[in-house]
Amino acid sequence: MNNNNYNDFQDARHSFEAVIGLEVHSQLLTKTKMFCSCQNIFGKEPNSMVCPVCLGLPGALPVINLEGVRLAVKAALALNIGINKKSLFARKNYFYPDLPKGYQISQYLDPVSSNGYLTVKMDGAAEKRIRINRLHIEEDAGKLIHIGNRSYVDLNRAGTPLVEIVSEPDISSASEAVSYLKALREILVYLGVSDGNMEEGSFRCDANVSIRRKGDSKLGTRAEVKNVNSFKFVEKAIKYEIERQIDIVLSGGKVVQETRLYDSKENITRSMRGKEEAHDYRYFEEPDLPPLILSEEFISEIKNSIIELPEAKRYRYVAEYKLTEYDAEVLTQDKDIAHYFEDLIKENNGRVEIKKLANWVINDLLFGLKVITSITKPVPEDVIRKAVSEDEGWTGNSKVIGNFVPQYETKLTDVGARNFLELILEVETGNINKNTGNTVLLEMLKNPNKKAGEVIKENNLAQVSDDKGIEDIVKQVLDENQKELADLIGGKDKLFGFFVGEAMKKTKGKANPKKVNEILKNLIEEKKKVS
Amino acid sequence: MDLSNLTIHQINDLLKYREVKSADITNSYIERIKKIDPVISAYLYNDFEEALSNAEYADKIIQKNKDFPYLTGIPLSIKDIFLIKGKKTTCASKILDNFISPYDATVIKRLKKNNYVFIGKTNMDEFAMGSSTENSAYKITKNPFDLNRVPGGSSGGSAASVSADLCAGSFGTDTGGSVRQPASLCGVVGLKPTYGLISRYGIIAFSSSLDQAGVIANDVLDAAIMLKAVAGFDEKDQTTRKFEIKDYPEIVKRADKSIMKGLRIGMPVEFFSEGLDLKIHSKIMEIKDLLKDLGANIVNITLPDTKYSVAAYYVIATSEASSNLERYDGIRFGGRFNEGKGIQSLDELYRKSREFGFGKEVKRRIILGTFALSAGYYDAYYKKASLVRKLIIKNYKDSFNNVDIILGPTSPTPAFLIGEKMSDPLSMYLSDIYTISVNLAYLPALSLPAGVMDNPAKKGGILPIGLQLISPWTTEARLLSVAKVIEDEVKFRDKYTPVI
Ligand SMILES: [Zn+2]
């Protein structure tokens, strides 16, 4: 290919644009499943969290879990999606061993909410509004476990609640898709609607990808890309799929409507030819459930329970607290951090500048936590012995032997805001200096039930601020360094710092440096006069 | 002493005054079942051990308490569509041949609370699909009035078991007439309550928006007693409602001729047109005259859209059934073809299990329903049928502005011969022409023996004729009271008995 051809080729590729819509499935953090009273938890022995309803036994009937409805409505309100006061459940019919009833209870024609939008800050670009077509409630299927050439069914997950959030095809690149997903996930996690775990599949996404020539208003034929269980894979899969479709069109072919599976090992998408395509789900109203009617009170009660979302918090932190965008970002990335910071502001009640509080949280507390929790210790011997004795078949307890576990498991909230503020005040009022403050903080993080004051007292860390004590120490330092003293008096002003340092050393840093400065100055003035 | 031809309230009187024990009653039924059921085949199976232990338990309760629930110590049969914990439940299908239920249906739970005696599971059309009980995968039940004829269906085993005194009463289900039509053909009382009055939890679903448990009894008071024991809201079934449950037995006991004065009784012209056996027609007219004499106002009404009810019903019922029966796939319970041996793929497992597990009529309806729900056909079939359903609901609503209760026949024909309609599904479907619209409209209705006609095939033989009463939503008390007054006039039980 000569250079001209290559440029033409690139121009041709650039004349296309991608049109992407995302379908997100997010599990809801309810105590029980969506249509029965089985617990909604993971990691239990297969088929131990089941009952006639979620097993799809003959005669069993579903009962709507209002907690699930509440969480779905909460998510919808946060995503600016209109709530439909009357919605219907529907059956989506298909055969698969992990679907015990042979149909999934979902919502089809009348979902619980429709027509919304999410304003997303795109990577390196301005904000963009992504319209959301609908959010509806449905139940999850069970899991198939393949061992050798046998397949087993685990129905613990069958019937757990999900919301499906369907965007309009307003997304035009892989990175926009990721930004949208991250924003969506952040809101759901913040509200306690979902744990947002992509690896475990509690937050999953299918992407509908098509291309068209720039300026065309007609949508191209789309392919549905499945099995993208991390942000990285979403980005890679969509990028691959766009290029694949452009290649097809440029070589004179036509994109076919199909479902494609992303293969993360080879970074390609593969067609899922065959039956999967031909599904006719034969949706119809679920006759076992009445229409879902939501009262005005029900909706407004949920509305009132919605906490301030991260985006709004960031905005407020910058505008009201005069924090930098970066600080606001760090403090709002996690609901717990933001709550902690706000508790701290409340406790502080105007005593310390808010900007300083933010620095304390970001530079000292969060950093200290990172340090403390990265300290590890070998797995204790008794644990190893127990593991080995339980492992009759010697099939390998290597994950226990020779491994390290964290020595401290302190969490942010373990050090109460009031306690942390006490420490901040000790430093800000000059009772201890900043370095000592950090020592105290590390001690508090190791023993979160200890008060700042206790740590200071126990370790005798309070600053020496009484003039008599400091004067004695400074005098001692001057006596011990006669030569330097003579030089200082002789005009070597730089040596002033040396004496301050020596005095601080003597007090192990407990002396108030301001006081040391003051007293040293006075004593030297006196000596100058004498000489 | 044969104690097997008594009504529930008669047995209750005897138990209350300690004239007999439940164990005596139960033994009488057991003896009769052993003697008669090999001929009738009303039961799919009996559990006499369980029955006697239930009776013993009931006798203890009766000994201790003056006040005990009406059904205490009463032997009842249960259609094999209700799940009973630890017992086989087949729905008369091979696909559930080895299914032991791990839980109790709500109806069964309530019966157990009433200390009833479980005597056996009755035969039925497979998955309640049919009007003759000939679609059972296991046996053919005979009509106790003529052993060459069907008992009706799908609760044919239940109706035959009550008619032939093989139990004191029976619980069945009614999706399009499955309690009323066999009750009519067997000369007993069949009540289908308002949709949502009795919990469907633990009843194997055929068509969820139409299914309703019902009772088959020797007389109206018994039906009232049975209804009272099981009716009411169930948190496990969201289609039940918090309806007021009245003291139906007391209301029935107090009902007398005086309630007929000024009662407006509607006679829908559509229920007396072509296809109705003339002898049934004239019997209903006889009853009409009788009621008129008692002071009722007879009003001719029209339910114009009920002519579409069979068509709408077969779209809705088969659509829902096609979905409800998807769980029978050979994976988790019930029959798996050849226990899975030699099966090469998941698809083959599905196909073979369902091919050999389901009978012909069930397959016919699954295919019909699957078609009606298919993409491109939904609007033309399911949606249109749902609209027709709304029209039928409105027809009834409008009529009940002018009348208090509706009177008509239950079935267009008396019991037909075994095999007569098996090759003609459409004529079989038309057996339910007068009952189906009631299910579509969620209404309560009752079939009451109105008299008999000569058996055309047997000299001196008789065949029962049933009348149907339909009343507004949740007015079971009215329905039972009116039925009771007619019953007192007709005196069917005093006059007519089965051949066996
Ligand atoms: Zn469950």
Q: How are the elements arranged and paired?
A:
The complex is a heterodimer of chains A (531) and B (500).
Chain A lengths: L2 H12 L1 E12 L38 H13 L3 E2 L2 E2 L2 E4 L9 E4 L6 E9 L5 E13 L3 E5 L2 E5 L6 E7 L6 H17 L12 E11 L9 E6 L2 H20 L7 E6 L4 E4 L12 E2 L6 E2 L2 H10 L4 H12 L3 H8 L2 H14 L5 H20 L2 E3 L2 H10 L13 E3 L10 H12 L5 H13 L5 H7 L8 H14 L1 H8 L5 H12 L6 H18 L1
Parallel strand pairs in A: 12-13
Antiparallel strand pairs in A: 1-10, 1-11, 2-6, 3-16, 4-5, 4-15, 6-7, 7-10, 8-9, 11-12, 13-14, 17-18
Helix pairs in contact in A: 2-5, 3-4, 6-7, 8-11, 9-12, 11-12, 14-16, 14-17, 16-17
Chain B lengths: L7 H9 L5 H19 L2 E4 L1 H17 L10 E5 L26 H8 L3 E6 L33 H8 L5 E5 L6 H7 L2 E4 L20 E5 L2 H11 L17 H7 L9 E5 L9 H16 L3 E5 L7 H16 L21 H12 L2 H14 L5 H21 L5 E5 L15 H5 L6 H5 L4 E10 L7 E9 L5 H15 L1 H4 L5
Helix pairs in contact in B: 2-3, 5-6, 7-8, 7-16, 8-16, 10-12, 10-13
Bound molecules: zinc ion.
Structural account:
The complex is a heterodimer of chains A (531) and B (500). Chain A is an alpha+beta fold and 531 residues long. Chain A folds into three domains: 19-295, no CATH class; 307-458, no CATH class; 467-530, Arc Repressor Mutant, subunit A, CATH 1.10.10.410. Chain A is built from 17 helices and 18 strands. Chain A has a nine-stranded mixed β-sheet. Chain A is elongated. Chain B is an alpha/beta fold and 500 residues long. Chain B has one domain: Amidase signature (AS) domain (Amidase signature (AS) enzymes, Alpha-Beta Complex). Chain B is built from 17 helices and eleven strands. In chain B, a hairpin with a 7-residue loop joins strand 10 (445-454) and strand 11 (462-470). In chain B, helix 10 packs across helix 12. The two termini of chain B are 18 Å apart. The chains are: A alpha+beta (531), B alpha/beta (500). The structure holds zinc ion (ZN). Zinc ion binds at residues 33, 36, 38, 50-51, 53-54, 159 of chain A.
